[in-house]
Write a structure and sequence with these properties.
Layout: E1 4-10, E2 14-20, E3 26-33, H1 48-66, E4 73-80, E5 85-89, E6 94-98, H2 106-124, H3 133-143, H4 145-150, E7 151-155, H5 157-166, H6 173-178, H7 191-197, E8 215-218, H8 221-227, E9 234-236, E10 239-240, H9 241-249, E11 257-261, E12 265-271, E13 282-286, E14 290-297, H10 302-319, H11 323-333, E15 343-345, E16 359-361, H12 369-391, E17 399-403, H13 410-420, E18 423-427, H14 432-444, H15 451-458, E19 461-465, H16 469-493, E20 502-505, E21 510-513
Parallel strand pairs: 1-4, 4-10, 11-17, 17-18
Antiparallel strand pairs: 1-2, 2-3, 5-6, 5-7, 8-9, 11-12, 12-14, 13-14, 15-16, 18-19, 20-21
Helix pairs in contact: 1-5, 9-14, 10-11, 11-12, 12-13, 13-16, 14-15
């Protein structure tokens, strides 16, 4: 009988379940929305119980689509968005779920970074930010102590799914390291680090640790009834989703790099040891001896989604094509050797400094939409390059896997190869997060002895793109220009709030304040 591996990928808006054959090919995929609510400004929440229900529904639909017997599924692994905070009460029932898009703790994160940022970075190889798990926990302890008093367990996103499957309350090393709760490289809780966050008195809430590929439980009778999985199916601890996506794309070895160009710009390098001086946004771990440095920001292909919805969608519909196909056609029509192309900074959702905003610069009357789409493609790639300038300042990395929306466009993927001067390998699977989780499940089930072996067996490369020297030289010049505009714009972004600037009074035809 053929045996399969099931991977789950729980993001901020939905849960996907994907079933994989022994060669890594996708047998079936199903997804289920997980309702998000915004009870107040800056707050983005969902019920942990609803998250598990969405996972169970996705699993059930996936098994039905695949048409396989549940007993043929050898093991299950889950990945989920990093950071955020999912609280259970003392009896293990759902209490509160805060997602990684939440910004309620922005002022506390700024305060914490100013006071203890360097000490936190030295211990955990990360820095405080608003939706970081320990920052949210500290904020709740300060602002809503009654919730913290009722809480019995603090979990991460995929841990809620694992609990639903097995009843086990715990987490894994990759997620706990990625959210800054573990001191590195020891991968253990540290009282001094917890005190820097202001949560030293809340150690009772922190979950039991396990390695990602470790079998931590088996599908319970209740979970079997809800999901359709066979009772007793092994379940592993699971993975931080950015790491799972890298694995699913085929990146598992020291010296390799992974790029995910989706809603977020996620860039990761795999090394035998941590950098001597912390420099990346965060660090996580694959197993116990492969260290992954990650630079990320919400500055990637989501910018194209915005452009499509506002300027392309209706035209594409009228022409009977997809908006993304139309964007690719437009970008291909732009002159790649133009001497004065527009410049795009992909900061529609966030940027490198407070107040940063996205936009086009250097537009002339001779430029067309084609030039603008090409500039958007290049601007997103340049921002990934800026992240690699932090991760790999010596530019020693020569190849990387690419997944996410940009990987679906041959032109955009080539722009990545040329602008980064790297060989780019395109994954053969769109559900790389779920496949990475399935790889961990395969190791836990004894099908593979290591992550590199699992990656070799399950993650094939669809396409390899080499950089073109002439295009790389041209894009080096454009990147320098992109950086120059970025530095100039930082001064404008730092200006006083808009209310204090001059406005044009149309009725009286003059400038006024406020």
């Amino acid at each position: 009988m053929t045996e399969y591996l099931l991977g789950l990928d729980a993001g901020n808006t939905m849960v996907k379940a994907a079933l994989f054959a022994p060669d890594g090919s996708t047998v079936a995929v199903a997804s289920c929305n997980s309702a998000t609510r915004q009870p107040a400004a800056h707050c983005v929440e969902r019920c942990p119980g609803g998250l598990w229900q969405a996972a169970a529904g996705a699993i059930r639909d996936c098994i039905e689509k695949a048409g396989v017997t549940p007993g043929a599924i050898r093991a299950v692994g889950a990945a989920g968005h990093g950071n955020g905070l999912y609280l259970l009460d003392r009896a293990g029932a759902p209490l509160l779920g805060i997602q990684s898009m939440d910004s309620r703790a922005e002022s506390l994160a700024t305060e914490m970074a100013a006071q203890f940022g360097e000490r936190i970075a030295a211990a955990a190889h990360t820095r405080p930010w608003p939706a970081m798990t320990p920052v949210l926990l500290a904020w709740l302890a300060r602002e809503t102590p009654e919730i913290v008093e009722d809480a019995g367990h603090a979990l991460l996103c995929k841990d809620v799914v694992v609990q639903g499957l097995t009843g086990r309350i715990g987490s894994d090393m990759s997620d706990l390291a990625g959210c800054g709760l573990l001191a590195l490289p020891g991968l253990d809780y540290d009282d001094d680090l917890l005190d820097l966050y202001g949560i030293g008195g809340l150690r009772r809430l922190l979950p039991e640790r396990a390695e990602s590929q470790e079998v931590v439980g088996r599908v319970t009778a209740a979970a079997s009834a809800a999901s359709g999985l066979a009772e007793g199916t092994p379940v592993v601890a699971g993975l931080f989703d950015v790491l799972a996506s890298a694995l699913g794309a085929g990146t598992a070895r020291v010296g390799e790099a992974s790029i995910v160009a989706g809603s977020w710009s996620i860039n990761q390098t795999f090394a035998r040891r941590l950098p001597a001086v912390p420099r990346a946004l965060l660090a996580t771990v694959l197993g116990r001896d492969v260290w992954v440095s990650c630079e990320a920001s919400p500055t990637s292909a989501a910018n194209l989604e915005w452009f499509v919805q506002n300027f392309i969608a209706s035209e594409a519909d009228a022409k009977g094509t997809t908006p993304y196909a139309l964007c690719n056609k437009l970008a291909a029509a732009a002159d790649p050797a133009a001497e004065e192309p527009p410049v795009f900074h992909p900061y529609l959702y966030a940027g490198p400094v407070p107040g940063a905003r996205g936009g086009f610069n250097a537009l002339g009357s001779w430029h067309s939409r084609a030039d603008m789409v090409r500039a958007l493609f290049e601007g997103v790639a340049f921002n990934h390059r800026a992240h690699f300038a932090v991760l790999d300042p010596e530019r020693s990395i020569t190849e990387a896997t690419l997944s996410g929306g940009a990987a679906k466009s041959p032109l955009w993927a080539q722009i990545f190869a040329d602008s980064l001067n790297m060989k780019i390998r395109i994954a053969d699977c769109e559900e790389t997060g779920a496949r990475g989780a399935a790889m961990a499940a395969g190791i836990g089930a004894g099908l593979f002895s290591s992550y590199p072996e699992a990656a070799s067996a399950l993650a094939a490369t669809r396409t390899e793109l080499a950089p073109y020297p002439i295009a790389t030289a041209r894009l080096d010049t454009r990147y320098a220009r992109w950086l120059a505009y970025l530095e100039a714009l930082k001064a404008a972004w730092a200006q006083p709030p808009q209310a204090d600037l001059l406005h044009f009074d149309a009725e009286n035809r003059k400038l006024r304040k406020g």
